[in-house]
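User: Can you help me understand a structure? I only have the sequence.
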Amino acid sequence: MEYRHLGRSGLTVSEIAYGNWITHGSQVEEDAARKCVEAALDEGITSFDTADVYAATRAEEVLGRALQGVRRESVEIFTKVYWPTGPGANDRGLSRKHIMESAHASLRRLRTDYLDLYQAHRYDHATPLEETLRAFDDLVRQGKVLYIGVSEWRAEQIAAALRIATDSGLDRIVSNQPQYNMIWRVIDSEVIPLCEKEGIGQIVWSPIAQGVLTGKYRPGDAPPAGSRATDPSGSRFIGRYLTDGLLGRVQQLRPVADEAGLSLAQLAIAWVLQNPAVSAAIVGATRPEQVRENVRASGVRLDPGLMRRIDEILGPDIQRDPAYTDSPARPA
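Assistant: Let's start by predicting it. Here is the structure, written out as tokens:
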């Protein structure tokens, strides 16, 4: 495993992080989840990403139990706040009330007294940005949060937060968590240039496009039994990738992966990690073997010619338009 600084902060993270969206507390049993976490630790993963909304708060609980007994200083725990975690009007968003209450609830579920990284899971148009940033800053000053980040914020939203933090002497954002992979490159045009200038690292999710870049989905075939495309909790997110044209082009990547001595999944993760703006790529797993396979992408260097071939193969399906956004109803 190789390690990188989170942006220009002093925090070092494993360049492959373990995430438990759709898995812990929902798709897999707790014993399997614990074995996946143990495999991640064995392979040198130190960074673990979750969110209060995952599996209706159960994902945090499962991760907290799985990390019990692990030296706290040896891992980095990331979680997020924004999406509804209860029925009340204040059980959502980025108000001071919700941030403070959610942070304390996450600490209890994760069985820790501080979070290494606390992230705004989306931008809240209904709350003044200064209120959100002051709440985060208070948590940092209280020692309950070490660093703050955001997830799926636009470049102009990140820039506004940085201006307020500078003008008001508040703690600055050090990370952004966007979707990013060979196909989905929306952050390249605006988000990454701003973040590189401001020292903000990318912790990217879905580096294998929710399994599509593993090659297990084939054009003309029904999705494999037990795959994310057949799971109600994940199928609505993967649908846009399941076109015969794209699936056929993914199959054309096999010789490229073979040449690099990698599986298709490893090639996809390694591709993400070629970008110096990326601090970590988040991988999920339902079995320990998947964790062990994915970590082989750490430290891989892909030559420029191979990177160009990937672009030539996927060209018609690469999404670069920053105006194209996912549904705001997706808490990934």
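Now, to help you interpret it: The chain has one domain: 3-317. Strands lie at 3-5, 12-14, 16-19, 47-49, 76-81, 115-120, 145-151, 173-177, 201-204, 278-283. Let me know which part you'd like to focus on.
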